[in-house]
Amino acid sequence: MPKDEFSEHDPMELIAMVLPGEVGTLEEMAECLIEEFVRLGWDEARMMTLFCNPMFLATHRIYRLKGEEYIRTLIRATLQKWQPTSTPGERRHLCPKSTTGKSAAR
After folding, report:
1. pLDDT for residue 106
2. Three-state SS string across the chain, please?
């Protein structure tokens, strides 16, 4: 079968599904997703679009199960944790804030 032809019975077609998980895995997944986008430079408003829009199945599922306030609180906590450590003009690296309030070196 050539690459350009579509087949309804393609055995290699990707199929998404929800798998059962242990208690706490939903929260861990939410934290990891948010951290990833914070490190890419996204702000709260932009990240909320991922959770509010049903087109994004994983993030919207978290939004429906945990609620808007949970998501916003997690985004704000993650934004506070990660801070830019370079000056303008330099390559931007993000490092988590240490418990002392200073940026932790990696």
Report:
1. 42
2. CCCCCCCCCCCCCCCCCCCCCCCCHHHHHHHHHHHHHHHCCCCHHHHHHHHHCCCCHHHHHHHHHHCHHHHHHHHHHHHHHEEECCCCCCCCCEEEECCCCCECCC
